[in-house]
Design brief:
By secondary structure, the chain is mainly α. The protein has nine helices and no strands.
């Protein structure tokens, strides 16, 4: 009984998230209201507020799903001995995702979302929280690579992670918002640049 109830809750949450995603992608984050989500999903406003405090919370749940997918990429490779391969997989998964129209849509409203709410002090905390979650994934790979002797001992992990995350966001912005399309060659060159900076020489 309890299990069926929890499945029902999850199903409704997913329904809200899926309809909200489509609306954010079609109309933009700013132009989409909770009323729009109510109309599209067929779930009452009270029902939506039962699961989410605000439109911002719905967006953050969508963003968390992307983070969970990134985590799974690393967890799937926990048994591999190569930190280099983990890093390459992480970067490739993130960047090749931008070839997918749905990921491009998500990128467009993600950039809009953070721009619209950049002056909100509460959202600044959320943005830092999100960054720290991504930071943890990459810093663990780099630290492991240093311990394994794959990467240089003197890597400044904090600045290296900042560079990787911010440049991948920049590539996503150019590709998804500006329409300057990324290619496989861009991804390969980007990975080569990162590896030349962190790999130990022969």
């Amino acid at each position: 009984m309890t299990n069926n109830g929890s499945k029902g809750i999850q199903s409704k949450k997913e329904k809200i998230i899926n309809y909200a995603f489509d609306l954010f992608a079609e109309k933009g984050y700013s132009e989409t209201s909770v009323d729009d989500i109510v109309k599209a999903s067929g779930i009452s406003k009270g029902g939506i507020y039962y699961y989410f405090k605000s439109k911002e919370d719905i967006f953050l749940e969508i963003a968390k799903d992307r983070l969970r997918q990134r985590h799974s990429i690393i967890n799937d490779e926990k048994n591999t001995n190569s930190s280099k391969e983990k890093l390459i997989s992480y970067i490739k998964w993130t960047l090749t995702g931008f070839f997918d129209e749905r990921v491009q849509q998500m990128s467009r409203f993600t950039f809009e979302f953070w721009s619209v709410l950049s002056r909100n002090p509460n959202m600044e905390h959320k943005a830092k929280e999100r960054y720290n979650m991504f930071y943890t994934i990459l810093s663990e790979i780099l630290e492991e690579g240093i311990r394994n002797g794959e990467f240089k001992k003197n890597i400044d992990i904090e600045s290296m992670v900042y560079i990787i995350l911010s440049t991948m966001d920049g590539i996503g912005f150019a590709n998804s918002v500006m329409g300057i399309r990324m290619t496989e060659e861009v991804i390969e060159n980007y990975i080569d640049m990162i590896l030349k900076k962190i790999e130990k020489g022969d």
